[in-house]
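One record is kept unedited as follows:
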Amino acid sequence: MARHRRAEPLDEDEPELNISSLIDICFLLLIYFLVTTTIKAKEQDVDMALPSAAPSDTQPDIQPMFIKIDVNGSIYLNSGPAQEILDTDVSSRELPQLTQRLEMYASAARAADSQPLVQLYVEGDAKQQRVVDVLNALAHQEIGKVTFTDLIDPE
């Protein structure tokens, strides 16, 4: 009786998928999207001149602008009887009325050959995002002299 040999399956018949070109294309697409994407920073870098520990005896060249942020996120300008409410929509991060006032104040200060000065009062439970929005508006107008205060003129 003759021995029958079983035929071994040939590996050559199995289909292959060469993915080396697919990997190259993926890397090229990744590089393309990394290069063409622009990263837009939402927050601005605020270069502030912080107040010194000891109070100064010299008066500032210009009357400082007083901005108040209350618990509800409303933004007020000035204090006492001259206080007026500007931006109350807390859902919007844009502050059009404050930006307009800051622009007028900064241009008037620079016309008088002095630097604009802003005093910022923030109530204790106010949202910090609103403070950041005000600081962004200040940075947009290139106002760098900002003082955080806890004193409100009772007039």
User: Anything to note?
Assistant: The helical segments are 20-36, 96-111, 128-140. Residues 65-148 form a domain with the Nucleotidyltransferase; domain 5 fold (CATH 3.30.420.270). The first strand starts at residue 65 and ends at 69.
